[in-house]
Amino acid sequence: MAGVSSKSATKRKIGEENRSYQEKWEDEFCFISGHKEGTAICLICRETVVGIKWYNLFRHHKSKRSSFTEIFPLESNERKNKVANLKLKVVKNIPNFKMMNGGHLQLF
C-alpha cells in the first residue's frame, strides 16, 4: 500500500541527527546554544527553539524579529554590540551558564 510504512521502519530522533549549534548563528539570528542538547535560546525573547537547524532559527528570527535586522544590519558594529549586550543579560539570568574566555558559554 502506498504511503504506509512498515513496522521495521523506525522514527527518526533529533539526537541521532548529529546537529550542533554553529557560532555564526549568534550574530546572524541572535541565538545562543541552549542548556539542553539540541536547543537554542533567542537572545531577544528568550524563547527556546528545539531542533537546531538553520531553517528553524531563520524562521523564528524572520517571523518574530524582522525589525531587528532593519535596525541593526548584519555585519554592523551596532549589531555586534547589541548581540553582546543581549547575551550578557541572558547569561546573568540563566544560573547554569557561565561566560568563558572568548565570550563562549559553557554549561556547568
What characteristics describe this protein?
alpha+beta; 15% strand; 3-stranded antiparallel sheet; 4 helices; two-stranded antiparallel sheet; 37% helix; 108 residues; SPIN-DOC-like zinc-finger domain-containing protein
User: Roughly what is the average pLDDT, rounded to an integer?
Assistant: 80
Q: How far is it from the N-terminal to the C-terminal residue, by CA?
A: 51 Å
Number-wise, the strands total 5
Q: How large is the count of helical segments?
A: 4
Helices and strands, in N-to-C order? Answer: HEEEHHHEE
Radius of gyration: 17 Å
Strand order across the largest sheet = 1-2-3
Largest sheet: 3 strands, antiparallel
Q: What would you call the structural class?
A: alpha+beta
Instruction: Tell the overall outline.
Output: globular
Enumerate the spans where pLDDT stays under 50 for 5 or more consecutive residues: none
Question: Helical residue percent?
Answer: 25-40%
Counted up, domains total 1
Quaternary structure state of the chains depicted: single chain
Beta-strand content estimate: 5-15%
